[in-house]
Structure formats: structure tokens, C-alpha cells
What does this fold into?
Amino acid sequence: MSSIGSSILTSLGAGSGIDTASLVSSLVSATREPRQTAITSNQTLNSSRISALASAISSLDTFADALSEVLSTSAYTGTPNSNDTSIASVSLLSGGTPTGLPAQLTVEQLATARVLSSSTVTGATSSTAVGTGTLTITTASGTKTITIDSTNNSYAGLASAINASNSGVTARVVTDSQGTRLVFKGETGADNDFSISTSADDGGNVLAGLGWSGTDSSTMTSSSAPQNAKITLDGVAYEYADNSIDDAIPYLRIDLNKASPGTTVNLTMTQPTSGLADLLKEFVDAYNTLMKALNTATAAGTDSSTSGVLNGVSGVRDMKKQLSALTSTELSSTGTYKTLADIGVGTNRDGTLTLDTDRLAQALESDPEGVTNMVNPQGSGSTATGLSKLMDSVRDNIEKDDGPIKLAQERYDKLADDYTDQLSKLDDQMTNYEEHLTKVYAAMETRLSALKATQSYLQQQIDAWNNSSDN
It folds into this structure.
């Protein structure tokens, strides 16, 4: 009996004690760790995919936006030129590229304005009184009446009031060694003549003498008459009221600087061939940086530890497929050169691009205007798509709400929430499991204590029997 009781006690750990807290902790850990490891491993991969997709989209946006910004500068739209800027100079207007160049321009006559001068008053200054009353200016667009009172009764006050009236006539005070006078100037153009009438309240000699209705007087004289600018453009005669002409050639401003009848000014457009060559090199380099990053992210590898984080993600495969079509997509529906492939941009087996600089140089030399229009068309009337617009279209299609990339992002965002919920549920389950084990082992200790009490009683009885038998 003694040996049997000792065996039971030894197997139960009686006498040495059972560390139930440590035992429960070990059992909970053994149950938790494999499940938690699996969840956190999936969670880490999912987080990496979310980050990699966001990075891919950000890189695509940066690439497309940078391309649009660069192509909007004058370095890639061409530069207008005049071979004699002393006669006429040219500059680009926004919204498109000039058409119809080169052109031959002759400036027959500049546009001028009516200029009137009042008589000089010896000893007067800008603050000298001119008298009170009214001054009325009449132009082709209407009449403006200006009141002269104590607040503006001076040369300077009158000039300021005229300039603030928006009558189409400006005034300035001129003071020199002979004295002070007013100079009036209208707008350029034959239809922009003007007249002045006055009504002096106090008989002021200066104000009363400022009237002019087409005839010079002792107090008001004209030094310039209004006339239109006259030009010929490619042999066709034109007249304009201003010396800055915006509508003779689309998207080109012509500033007339002096008349020179009989002199031909050549207006041309220099195509941005060197700029486009550099741009396409940078485009290929930037594109390859993006594509190599996508290739790394989608690499198959030999197992999960060596494959790319986006391997098998259909949205990224679709993204690469759409990007790879850039070189073969028509940028222009007309002309010799219609695609990037036509001017030397080819696609390698891994999806990266290569640039045949000799072929590009030949295309730029053969048809610089056609290549420029294909890559960077200007104006709403152009039929060409252009590289920037194509890139924006591809980007928009890749990032559309119901596209593979967005659906993949939504799926991985949902998985992130699911993995967080799984970890939370695992915590709850392990807490319940720990409570259950604790109760089980607490009950076991209670039973063990009862068993020990029974064992002690039996041991006493056995000892008593042994003592009795000995006697």
C-alpha cells in the first residue's frame, strides 16, 4: 500500500507542489503563439501590400503631374522669332501654338492717339489753381463730366480726376523751364478721337482755356492725330487700332515698334527639337524607374520569402500592362510620326523603355513640327492627343474607382480590419481559455488536497495496523 500511495503522490506532484500559474501560462502561450504568428504574418504582408500599392499610385501621379508641368513650359512649345525686333517683336499667347508661320510682315504705319497740350503758364506749378467748374470729355464710347471744386482745383488735382474718370483719356502735368501745362492723350486708333468742353464757375483762365473740338487755339494745340496701325501680312493688308496685335496669327502677339514701309520682317517659329530630345530621354529614365520598382514588387521569386510583396496582385499586373501600351498608342492621327515607337522609343522584355537617339534625331530633323505636335500639341483645335494627355488618360484609367488597383486597395484595407479583429478575438479567446484552465487547476488542487488528507489518514491506519501486527 505504501508503495502504491507514494507512486500516486509522485505522479501528481504532491509534496513538491504544482505551479499552476506557470502551467496555465505555458499552456495559453502554446495555444496562442501559432495562431497569433499566423495572423501577424498575414497582417505584416497585408500592410506591406497596402504601403506598396500606395507608393505605386503616388509614383504614377508624380510621374504624370511632372510630365504635364514640364510640357506646359515654353521650352517644349516652340519659340516665336522676329528677324527685326526694332520694327516688330513677337511673343506667345497662352492656349496653343501659332499656326501659319513663317510669315512676312511689313509695318506701313503705327497706330497713334490724339495728344493735346494746354498753353504753358509761366511760374505755375502742379499745385497752381486751375479754376472751378466742369470739364467734359467726349469720346466714341460716351461722355464723362468731371467736376472741379476746392478738393481738386489744381493742375495735379485735375489730372488725377481725369485719370480716375475712365473716360478713355489720360492727363499728366508737365513742368519745365517755361512753366506748367497739361497734356491729354486718348486711345490709339482712328475711331478713338476725343473733344473737351469746359464750364468755369469762377472765370478761371486755365480751366476755361482747356476746351478743344477739333481746332487748335492759343490755349490748346494737338501734336498727334489718331490713326490705325497698317500692316501687310503675307501680302494681305490689315488695320488695327492698337500696336499690340493678338489676332493676326493665332496664339501670337505682334508688337509693332516702328513703321518701316518697304521693309519685310520675317516671323518664324523655332521648334523645341533639342528640348524635346532631352525631355524624351528624361521621360524614358523616369518611366524605367517606375517600371523597375513595379517589377521588383511583383517578382515571382522561389518562395514567399523571395517573391515581391505585390506578386500575384492583378491590379498591378493591369497597371504594368496599361503603361506598356504607351509606346504603341497613337498620339497623333496624322503625319509620318504617330507613336513614340515611330520616333525611337521601344519596349524591352521586362517592360522598361529604350530610346534610339539616332532614330529620334532623324525624326526631329525630318519633321520637327510634326514631332512637336505629336508629343506636345497646343490649342483646342489640335487633333493630336499628346504625351501628357495620354499619360493622364492612362493614369485616370488605372486609378478609376472600379478598377483593379482601387479594388485591390479596398480588399487589403478590409483585410487589415479583419486581421485587427482576429487579434482582438484571439485576445478574448485566450483570456477565456486562461480563466478556464485556472478554474480546472484550482479544482484539481482542491481534489489533490482532499486526496492528501485521505492519504494521511490511510497512512496513519496502515502505521497502526503495522504496529498491532508487530505486537
About this structure: The first strand starts at residue 79 and ends at 82. Residues 1-16 have pLDDT under 50 and may be disordered.
